[in-house]
Design brief:
The structure holds 2 protein chains of 2 kinds. Chain A is α+β, with helices and mostly antiparallel strands. Chain A is built from 5 helices and 7 strands. In chain A, 37% of the residues lie in helices and 23% in strands. In chain A, strands 1, 2, 3, 4, 5, 6 and 7 form a 7-stranded antiparallel sheet that branches. In chain A, strand 3 and strand 4 form a beta hairpin. The mean pLDDT of chain B is 84. Classes of the chains: A alpha+beta, B alpha/beta.
Chain lengths: 221, 180
């Protein structure tokens, strides 16, 4: 989305340049995260262009492909002035592929519909992938902004993407009707792996974020 | 402070199969006076997590409405653009619209679906608050709840057939829709 976006319930004005800066934050973070994953798996990973968007709360699920499908979401919170969120979305098949790649168990995607169906070992593999991705994402952001960011323990949900996003949308649309999403897609062709890393900065922190980066920004509350 | 409330969020478009997908903060009415031709679409929400689907029906006059609620209470904003985002406002406005379209207040019954807790340990997430808020609001207005499928830890799919006023619900794990 380009140009100026205004919302009367809470004024959000972002110029093209400011959106580009958010996109760059996403690029740096996801770049570090994906390099780490690539080291772990010892595979080449294709990364799509990062996109930064401001959307009305009800349009957020449309930002993702297959938002009616069942997916695995790893959710990490970073307490900063107000919580930053990084979510990683993988298809069920992708997660099973990852578990099979990193362990010796062979599983099939049809059997797994709930986290309770996974054994502890595969469960902790998903946690670990989540920790590695969001940990590197956060540490890259922390270096860039010279602030201290500490991750909370990630949470995992296996459900329809719409249902999972609702809780996150509810959290971020209490003050404003608009939600910023910074998405990066990743793909490993030879093991058929696909996913999305999504960074959601709450609109309240935009002022302090741009202040750190020395960019003019005013917001009316 | 005067809060200005706009009434965005009414869905009127119906897709080829006669389905209406209801996004968050939106609502749908059937049997409206401003639309003389009788249409009976199926209202669907795929993936209802912490949100609530509120369905109000007047069986006698065959007027009904459904809204997709996100939060329990309206925040103190100067302008509220999507009142159906909030439980308290959504019930109020949906009742008003139904009565405007020929429903009788005493005949209106409610069905609520949703409000699950998707992530474990989620103290910030709204599912339980939403159920509480909508039940309190319904009790205040003395509206009887005739169908209740709330809580749990899984997402739901909801289909509301406005032809015979039946509601079908499916947990994500379940294969088939069941009637409530």
């Amino acid at each position: 989305m380009s140009g100026k976006i205004t919302n009367k319930s809470m004024k959000i004005n972002l110029t093209e340049v400011q959106l580009d800066i958010l996109k760059e934050l996403g690029n740096i973070g996801s770049g570090h995260a994906i390099t780490a994953l690539s080291d772990l798996l010892n595979k080449k990973i294709e990364v799509s262009l990062t996109s930064a968007d401001i959307n009305l709360f009800w349009k957020v699920p449309e930002m993702f492909n297959n938002h009616n499908k069942e997916v695995v979401v790893i959710y990490s919170e970073i307490p900063f002035n107000s919580d930053l969120t990084i979510i990683q979305i993988f298809s069920k098949k992708t997660v099973i592929n990852l578990i099979n790649l990193l362990s010796e168990f062979k599983k099939s995607a049809d059997n797994i519909s709930n986290i309770n169906d996974l054994d502890d070992f595969s469960y902790s593999i998903i946690y670990e992938i989540g920790n590695i991705l969001s940990g590197h994402y956060a540490s890259a952001l922390a270096d860039l902004l010279s602030i201290k960011l500490m991750l909370n323990v990630p949470k995992i949900a296996i459900d329809s993407l719409n249902a999972i996003l609702e809780g996150i949308i509810a959290k971020y649309s209490q003050v404003s009707d608009y939600i910023i999403t910074i998405n990066t897609g990743l793909k490993i062709l030879d093991i058929n792996l696909e996913g999305t890393i999504c960074f959601i900065p709450p609109t309240e922190i935009l002022v302090s974020l741009f202040e750190i980066l020395n960019i003019n920004y005013e917001m009316e509350l | 402070m005067v809060i200005k409330i706009k009434t965005y969020g009414r869905i009127e478009k119906i897709d080829k199969n006669g389905d209406v997908f209801l996004p968050i903060g939106h609502y749908f009415l059937t049997n409206c006076k401003d639309k003389p031709e009788k249409i009976h679409p199926k209202l669907v929400i795929y993936g209802l997590g912490s949100c609530i689907a509120l369905i109000l029906i007047d069986f006698k006059n065959k007027v009904c409405g459904m809204s997709h609620i996100l939060l329990p209470k309206a925040h103190q904003n100067k302008v509220i653009e999507y009142p159906h985002k909030y439980a308290d406002l959504s019930l109020k406005f949906l009742m008003q619209e139904l009565i405007k379209n020929g429903a009788v207040r005493d005949n209106i019954k409610a069905i609520i679906v949703g409000g699950s807790r998707i992530f474990d340990l989620d103290e910030n997430f709204m599912g339980i608050d939403n159920i509480k808020a909508i039940k309190e609001a319904l009790e205040k207005l003395n509206i009887k709840i005739i169908g209740d499928d709330t809580g749990g830890t899984e997402g739901r799919g909801v289909i509301f057939d406005t032809k015979d006023f039946t509601v079908y619900v499916k947990l994500t794990k379940e294969l088939n829709y069941r009637k409530i």
